[in-house]
Amino acid sequence: MANIPASQAATMRANQGTAPRCLLELQTVDGTRLYIADGAISVLSAIGAFDVGGATVVAFNNWLIDPPQFADTGTLVTSTATAVFQNISGNTIERDGSVLFTTQKLWGAVFVFRLWDALSQFALRTYIGNVTDVELDDTQVSLSLQKSSNWSEIPAPDCNIDPSCQLTFGSPACGSTSPTPCQNTYGTCSQLNRFKGVVTIWETSAITVGQRSGVAQPAPVVDLNNRRPG
Fold first, then answer.
1. Gyration radius of the chain over CA positions
2. Rounded CA gap, 115 and 121, in Å?
3. Residues with Cβ < 8 Å from 222, sequence gap 6 or more?
4. More confident residue, 21 or 98
5. Dihedral sign, CA of 206, 211, 212, 216?
6. What is the pLDDT of residue 124?
7. Which CATH number fits the domain 6-153, given the four candidates 3.30.530, 1.10.760, 2.30.110, 2.40.160?
């Protein structure tokens, strides 16, 4: 049972008569969809919610052998899991997975995984992301799933993010033509529209009645740009 301890799943079965179903929906770049679960069930499609006319009830194939085990943490660290579904019906040449998809098609496919409580018709857990790897043989298809909150792969600027501006004074990116070099702070910047730093203090003592505004002040500590030539 994905994401639920065996003891808790047993309690849910005792109280409700059934444990949550594991539902996995896949959609490839060309729009092909696959609905698989760890038991035959008909449920409103999560991906179908974006279709014209809204979601419709779809039949999930009882193909899911090993549901993905996602780890819920208190951070934004990328969470990955592996899902395995059967590839055993059909003849020895064409199987469930290989008939519907090729390995190339599955790469990058969007997935929605739900831990579905059939009694309440409610998803206890929902995970959205992409397929990052595929392994296929005559008996099963193994998918590596990665949640969409993959901050480790988002390109970040090659500079520090702090109160100091990261631009070299007088460079084309800076655009300043002032004869006096700045101190890489907002308060000494002569080209404010290109300031590349974080404003940390707002002076509000100059606010008048009926006016809500603030004046940006330089950071209390001068943080020099380490990338700027000395």
1. 27
2. 11
3. 164, 183, 184, 185
4. 21
5. negative
6. 85
7. 2.30.110
**What pLDDT score does 108 carry?**
85
Q: What is the pLDDT of residues 48-103, one digit of tens each?
A: 888 888 888 999 988 888 888 887 766 656 678 888 887 655 444 445 555 555 55
Domain spans of the chain, in order of start = 6-153, 156-221
Q: Quick check: 36 and 63 in contact, CB under 8 A?
A: yes
- Strands 122-136, 140-147: pairing is antiparallel
Looking at residue 188, its amino acid is T
Which ranges in the chain belong to alpha helices (H)? 6-16, 96-100, 103-106
Q: What is the pTM of this model?
A: 0.58
| Confidence check: pLDDT of 227 > 60 | no
**156/150 Cα distance (integer angstroms):** 13
When the pLDDT of each residue in the chain is averaged and rounded to a whole number, the result is 75
Dihedral sign (CA 217, 219, 224, 225): negative
Strand pairing partners for 165?
none
pLDDT above 70: percentage of residues in the chain: 63
Give the separation between CA 77 and CA 21, rounded to whole angstroms: 26
Q: How far apart are CA 59 and CA 116, in angstroms?
A: 14
For residues 222, 225, 228, 230, the Cα torsion angle rounded to the nearest 10 degrees is 40
Structure tokens at 27: 């959609």
